[in-house]
Specification:
Blueprint (H helix, E strand, L loop, with lengths): L3 E8 L8 H30 L4 E6 L2 E4 L3 E4 L10 E3 L1 H28 L19 H36 L12 E3 L7 H32 L3 E7 L12 E4 L2 E4 L17 E4 L3 E4 L4
Parallel strand pairs: 4-6
Antiparallel strand pairs: 1-7, 2-5, 3-4, 8-11, 9-10
Helix pairs in contact: 1-2, 1-4, 2-3, 3-4
Amino acid sequence: MPGRQFVGFEVAASDDVSPLWRALPLLAYLTVILASLTGTVAIGTTVGRFHDQCPLYARPSVAEFDGQNVTFNERSSDDRRTSWGDARVCNVAEFLPIFAVIFSAAFFFFFCMCGKGGKGSAEGFGMDSPWRIVCPGLVFNLGITIATLVCAVWTSGGVYQFCEELEQSHTNISCAELNNYRFIGYPKVSNLRSWLVLAQVCSWLMFCGLLFVTLLLILRCLCRPDLVPVYETLADEAAGGDGRRHSTDTYFTASSTPRRPDAPPGPGGDGPTIETVSPLVHRSAEP
């Protein structure tokens, strides 16, 4: 039976590539864009209402609390005064989502232009080989995914520490009731818990969306739906390996030399004798 030898890959037809390879990244990028925009608004609003002071990883010290109004201890002469978080942490939590929006919008556009895969089609605006953006996209997605993971961890950790310190500074304060509190000196602060929870949720949605795209691109590289293997059929070869069949035959010749009466049995006696000749090898005309 003829064998097959792998010789390489060729680009698959666009109709042979599942549309999910294109639709799923588009949906994930859209989720990242919406989550990132919402998250940056949540952090930016909270920081702005606290007079550009970062609440993430802050250590608030409550001087007075009457059940609704919270007054922070901000006397510079007091060692136990409120200590606000590092502005750089809030800058990362606020501005990295903006970068994620720009990145996601760019690749959303690329995937829209490039069609679902293979050799491309009219739906890809005539662009050939849209699968060529998969590997570069994987590298860039991996980098931004790691960055958004750091952003999500910092945001969640910062909110957690702010709430812990706030509750420890006064026994009657609960983070679950932050929406009902008013902060003296910061009249614009309202619905604080809602803004902080929204910032956390959006930071993790941003990370999860980019992680999903990264894993999807890795799976696409492993499965290779855009490429089909090409095999070469091998001819049925005999032992010689040169495409020709070898045969070995035995030929016989008759000797007409008469046998002498005193000659021992064997060649050269009376009558014809059969003599074996060395096998001759000849090549057949078969390919």
